[in-house]
Amino acid sequence: MMRVLEFVDTHAPYLSEQSTLQDAVDKLDLYKATTLPVLNEEGVVIGLITERQVFDALYAEWQAAARQVPAPRLAPFHPYAHARKDRPITQWMTPEPPVLSEHAPIEEAVALMLQHGLDTLPVQGEGKFIGTVRLIDCCQAILETVASD
């Protein structure tokens, strides 16, 4: 049985509870990630923030306008986003997200991702963040298993 530990990205980016929306944008872009775990000072996962949550936080007013008018221009809403960029991500993150044990089977990772609508999950070993596993990693694991059977 393949375990999460075999596919965990131990160099995965993360944020601290002091991180801002700007920090989230910078790391999501730099690492081409779609989801970032948020850690407390002890290295425990306390939240997750996705690129969609970051966009929703920065452009809430545009989204409200988009419900009234199909596809309003984004430019008039930039000042709202700019004014909000230094706010803490803890206001928008998903608190107490699903977290995998490093010893969990790949199937459990897939089930949790599908259940929560996520493509990346944080992995903990001995109660501390050690990295992330992505849905594509799980696909790779499953295909490798099928190929070796």
Quick synopsis:
The chain has about 150 residues and is of the alpha/beta class.
Unreliable sequence segments: none
**The CATH homology group name:** CBS-domain
The beta-strand count equals: 7
Give the overall shape.
Answer: globular
Main sheet overview:
4 strands, mixed
Task: Give an account of the 3D structure.
- By secondary structure, the protein is of the alpha/beta class.
- The protein has one domain (4-148): CBS-domain.
- Helices cover 40% and strands 20% of the residues.
- The chain is built from 6 helices and 7 strands.
- Strands 1-2-3-4 form a 4-stranded mixed β-sheet. The protein has a 3-stranded mixed β-sheet with strand order 5-6-7.
- Helix 1 packs across helix 2 (51-58) and helix 5 packs antiparallel against helix 6 (135-148).
- The protein starts with 14 loop residues before the first strand and ends with a helix.
